[in-house]
Amino acid sequence: xTSMTFLRRxxxxxxxxxxxxxxxxxxxxxxxxxxATHTRARLNISDTAATAMEIANTVRAIYGMxxxxxxxxxxxxxxxxxxxxxxAIPNVxxxxxxxxxxxxxxxxHRTTDTNGNSITRGFTIEFTLPDVAPDASxxxxxxxxxxxxxxxxxxxxxHSGFMPxxxxxxxxxxxxxxxxxxxxxxxxxINATALxxxxxxxxxxxxxxxxxxxxxx
Length: 217
Fold this sequence. Notes:
Blueprint lengths: L1 H9 L4 H49 L11 H6 L23 E9 L5 E11 L5 H14 L11 E2 L2 E2 L15 E6 L2 E4 L16 E9 L1
Antiparallel strand pairs: 1-2, 2-7, 3-4, 5-6, 5-7
């Protein structure tokens, strides 16, 4: 009896048992991978919102009290001026990278005041999504519009791309989040400030090529 029990113990797994074990391990690994991917995606959103605010606060600290000073318009000049956080600048130092390996671009809104002086009224921080699949790009843009929503949904003027086309009052000056939030929906910039998340993408598998935030200085 003892030798029979020993033989049974030594026989190893049957094919069915091995399949069940591998299936369970595969299911467990898939669940861990899905959880890790979701966590990484959420971190990318929160980190990007924080990066946008860090850039905005840096620009406002430099140009908020000097609206007549002309800021650099080329990326190399903006990097040299310290307008971007160091962690977003690769070693080559000629472009700024976001969490999805796209670019972070800074565009200044320059207009003329009543005295004919050229002044900086605001700026837009743009994030591109060049290599993201359509489904993932829509999710990213939707999450970013929730994470960093513009606070001027009551604005009734027009927009030119990702900037307001009409003059915004200089007072009160801005000290918080963006005035406007935009998405690049299939190559067309859409003011998403007052849109519900479910209204951002209305046609089939529309792609989101990027998003942007307009700040007052």
